[in-house]
Prior knowledge:
The chain is mostly helical and 265 residues long. 78% of the residues lie in helices and 0% in strands. The protein has one domain (5-24, 76-260).
Amino acid sequence: xxxxxxxxxxxxxxxxxxxxxxxxxxxxxxxxxxxxxxxxxxxxxxxxxxxxxxxxxxxxxxxxxxxxxxxxxxxxxxxxxxxxxxxxxxxxxxxxxxxxxxxxxxxxxxxxxxxxxxxxxxxxxxxxxxxxxxxxxxxxxxxxxxxxxxxxxxxxxxxxxxxxxxxxxxxxxxxxxxxxxxxxxxxxxxxxxxxxxxxxxxxxxxxxxxxxxxxxxxxxxxxxxxxxxxxxxxxxxxxxxxxxxxxxxxxxxxxxxxxxxxxxx
Length: 265
């Protein structure tokens, strides 16, 4: 069992994975159920949204609130879905090795014929699997609801949006994993990754309003996640490649840092 860290990690966290998937699925179903009332009052809602501060409209993508894609982007993909995916990613990444060190169980794992790099890669693969499961639940609920209510959102856009959000979670999870592997401190790993996520979201959200932030916007992973508007325009290889590249580089950093550290307890 201990030789397969991938399976062990999924076994240890299956309740959390199921909880996140169920919770996000129920929230998505609730949001979709609200949409007909928004669509039927489109003119009134558009006037209401137009009265919102420009900063608020920019942050939450409210410019096209009454269309199916605009509603789902504003209510789910602008904040809720990435927040869930990033939270899952950071939680997994911070606990992967740093959590084992803090629980004094890392020696038990490494006493087996298990290379340190395998411990890192299996944890990252388990994170990817967890995000994929939650993303599939989200996509299934979205597809069923959008089809029943004729929201004008196709399966391609749904797959692109949920896939991009999962890659965002994977990138921040890999950042947390790298910090945890380098320091052995779970809280620090989570804090660093969360701070970078918050900073990235603020830069991406405020850049249209603050000229000084515009040159920095493309450095935000949230920009790479949503800039192409995947729900409307489908999958964008360039944006996805950036997120995958960040995850890969952080995985390499995590592996090197973990192999070089003295883990004596």
